[in-house]
Specification:
alpha+beta, Glutaredoxin, 2 domains, four-stranded mixed β-sheet, about 15% strand, globular
Length: about 300
């Protein structure tokens, strides 16, 4: 299994915050996730869309991010990465907002800045908050049994530490998502409505969202060439294409070509298979190699018939 952990996720995977309710929360304006579903990964999902000054993209308690800040981040990247970053400006905004808000929370919690840069301050805060998260031996054994093929048939004692680390990250991520589901309201995050709507159209111009909007059930494989379990999945994907024909979208999303797309859909390791119904709603997700028999069962659960 190949882990994919961009910088923002490295911070967030360790996170288990408890934040005092703020008085700044603004109840005006629609919630971003309800208005523009799937655009935000987490921290901005409960932000409010608002009419802001033309050059202001985000405003929160003590925080303001402007168009010039995003321009500067894009310009600082290597030239070959700039087109990808330009297509994912909303995710850059979300990363900046997350780092600024987490830094504020860390300093408020008394984390010292002495001898640390901003990233180290946040890291120390998250590690302190997530210190109690653990994984039981029974959970490790169950994962090993369910993913024997993906693990190459290695005995439990050889892979238990890696499995435990992976499952611990998943638990921490679940805590992150639970916290972030309310953070937009807690600190009163506002995002420029007109800018976010424009970014929404750009973000949806990808094979995954096009499949979800097609009115047909979809199976999406997030992976990369050269990843052994991903390569093992390719014949299964091809068989599904032949078996179900036009009744099913089968899409391979290469996360190395577009890591932002993987991040949008919460991909931290590969391969991942996500199944969507005809309305584009996620109905099942699996991480690791997925046996052909189980893939076909899941497809048929969505009511897809072989051609």
């Amino acid at each position: 299994m190949l882990k994919i952990v961009p910088r923002l996720w490295m911070l967030m995977l360790l996170m288990a915050l408890s934040c005092p309710a703020g008085a700044f929360a603004d109840s005006k304006g629609p919630v971003l996730e309800k208005q523009l579903p799937g655009l935000a990964m987490n921290i901005l999902s409960t932000a409010r869309l608002a009419s802001l000054a033309p050059d202001v993209l985000l405003r929160a308690e003590g925080i303001e991010i402007r168009t010039a800040d995003i321009d500067e981040a894009v310009s600082a990247a290597p030239p070959d990465q700039r087109p990808l970053l330009n297509r994912n400006r909303f995710m850059l905004l979300e990363q900046m907002a997350a780092e600024k808000i987490l830094l504020s929370q860390a300093l408020s919690a008394g984390i010292s800045r002495e001898g640390r840069d901003e990233t180290a301050v946040i890291q120390a805060f998250l590690e302190e908050k997530a210190a109690g998260v653990d994984v039981a031996d029974a959970e490790v054994a169950a994962f090993h049994e369910a993913n024997a093929s993906m693990l190459g048939g290695l005995p439990l004692d050889q892979v238990k530490d890696s499995i435990k680390s992976f499952l611990r990250d998943q638990k921490r991520q679940a805590m992150v998502e639970s916290y972030f589901s309310t953070l937009g309201e807690t600190v009163g995050i506002q995002v420029s409505r007109t800018w976010a709507e424009a970014q929404y159209e750009i973000a949806r111009d990808n094979p995954v969202d096009k499949a979800r909007a097609s009115g047909k059930p979809s199976m999406i494989e997030f992976g990369a060439t050269g990843c052994v379990p991903c390569d093992m999945m390719q014949p299964i994907l091809e068989k599904a294409r032949r078996k179900y024909g036009d009744g099913l979208n089968v899409v391979f999303a290469h996360v190395r070509d577009d890591p932002f797309l993987g991040a949008r859909f919460g991909i931290r390791s590969i391969p991942v298979q996500i199944f969507y119904d005809r309305d584009g709603k996620e109905v099942f997700r699996h991480t690791g190699f997925y046996a052909e028999e189980e893939v076909m069962k899941q497809i048929e659960k969505m009511g897809v018939e072989s051609k």
